[in-house]
Structures are given as C-alpha cells and as structure tokens.
Amino acid sequence: ARHCKDNSECKGDVQPADFVPYIEYKSMLRVYQWIGAGRDSDGHLEPLAQFWLANKSSMSSEWIEDDILGSRLENEESDIIPPPRCYTSWTVQPATDSEKDMYRAQEKLRYEKPHKAYTFRMHGYESVVGPVKGIYTQQTGLNKARGHSLLVPDRPAYVTILSLVRDAVARLPNGEGTRSDICELLKESQYLAPLINSTAENNLNSVVSGALDRLHYENDPCVKYDTPRKLWIYLHRNRNEEEFERMHHLNGPGGNKIKKPAPRRQSRAKAKDPLNMKGPPNVALEPTSSPTK
DNA sequence: CAGATCAGCGGGGTTCCCTC
DNA sequence: GAGGGAACCCCGCTGATCTG
C-alpha cells in the first residue's frame, strides 16, 4: 500500500473488483494497523505483491503532508472504527430452537445483572455488551415496563427496544451486518413478542430502524452506519467487559454527564464530495471491511 | 415539577432497480 | 439515459413515562 497525494495520482493502482482494505490508518495514533486477520490469503495478496514488484520503481514513497490529513485529524478521531476482538465465518441465519434456547438462557443472565457488562457466546463468537444505560446498581425491578407493541409486557422495565437492538447489533458476526441481520438476531430474544404475520414483521423493521437511528446519535454511540457498504457496524466490538464497566461508571451518576450535542451531519452533497475523500487507496481510514458475501 | 429517556411519526434525501 | 417507484436512512418534533 502506498499513499497518494490526491486521487488522480492513484489512478495507476490496481485493486481487485471486490477490494477490501487489509490495513487501517489510525490517524489519532498515526500508525497503521493490520485488520485482515482471518480474511487474508495468498490468493488475495499474491496479485498485489506481483504488481508491486513489477511497478515499485515507478512508485512514489511520499507520504501525505500533514496539512492534507492533519486538518482532518480532529474529526476522524471520533470516527475511528475498531476492528473486531475476534472473527467468525458464521453468517446470520434464522436460529434453530436449540440456538434460541441457548441465547435466551444467556440473555436471562445478562438482564439479571443489567448494571454489568456481559459476554454472549454463540456460534463460536464472543459479543461483549455494556451495562444497560442508566442502570448503575442491582435494581429491585419495581418499575413497570413501558408498553411496547413488539415487546412482551412482563419484562423488566430496563429491557427496552433500544437495549435489545443494542444487544442484537453486538451479536452481529464480526460486529457488522445489515438491518435485516439485526432483525433476525432480535427475533431470538425472549422479550420480543411473537410476530404473528408479515405486518408485524414489517413493523419490526421500522421499529429497528428507529432504534438504530437513536442509538447512533447517543454520546459514545455503539453503532455506525457504513453507507457505501450498507452495513451497520458495532463500534464497541473490540471492548472487553472491564472497559465497558469503567466507561459506564465514568458516564454514570456523578460522572461526566455533559451531553454532547447531537452531531449534525454534513450536508449530503458535501459528504459525498469525492474531493473530500482523501483516504489512501489501500488503507481504510474509516470502516474495516469484510469480504463480500 | 423539570429534565431525561424512550418511542412514534413524518417529511426529505439518497440509492437502487425496473421500465420505457 | 431518463423517469418513476421502492427501500432505506436522516433528522426534527412531539408525547408518554420515569426519576430526582
């Protein structure tokens, strides 16, 4: 991989049609990180290595000037997407009854201690979820759960559509997936009311859409939507339970509760401006990628 | 009672697919 | 290639409920 000063300089590079970056540039730390673990293979790397060997004499080794990337550092620092803690080749599919039982047993444990982080272990993949927002002690559960058309009425009050969607996002394989993947995982929850017809299914889709919407405007959001790849990414996918609990209490009662104003999105025309997309050709400045299915 | 949180709603924008 | 429709996300507003 090499840096180009601008896009035009990169036109000579070759990338496979199904190109996905294998290294990520951490602008905050100014380091490159290998993010291809589990996805790399000689089949992908050999053509690139051959091309490099054939063309290395004509390639520039110049680095991006600080004034090109430097001015963007502050913005990017908040946009860094961590790689998953572990990888899985499992893809989302409807759960069998035994899989549902297994998940529900774990989910029960997770919500027995809502003030603690929890690690779901399914399909050989570990998904760590943080404590439920706003819960800092072992609750007595006296509060009544708010009514919700898609949730069962006899559930703890702190089990909301937001918490369930957050768990479903956390359980996405490698922390990435589509909205329908999230819906599929959500259906395994014991707190979701049975979907009786296709109308209820559509309703679930729009409810999840709204929940994802709200989740990614939170302070320290747990999800981000990757527009080019049309995937939702679990931003906390590399945190462990200790980190979750530490951050939970930092933001908890007595902690820093200064609410960050909702990040105003760039105007769409601006966000899509190709001139603003200065990422090096083979480096993910933003999301990590997984192979196209 | 005020503020925070959760959730629903609807208009607007973008992208993709299909048809002509 | 242009146009239309569908699907989806973006964003602000509002109301219900809970908490201190």
UniProtKB/TrEMBL annotation:
InterPro entries: NFRKB (IPR024867), NFRKB_WH_1 (IPR025220), NFRKB_WH_2 (IPR057748), NFRKB_winged_sf (IPR038106). Coiled coil: none annotated. It comes from the Eukaryota. Residues 257-269 have a biased composition (Basic residues). Residues 246-293 are annotated as: Disordered. GO terms for cellular component: Ino80 complex. This is NFRKB winged helix-like domain-containing protein. It comes from Cherax quadricarinatus (Australian red claw crayfish).
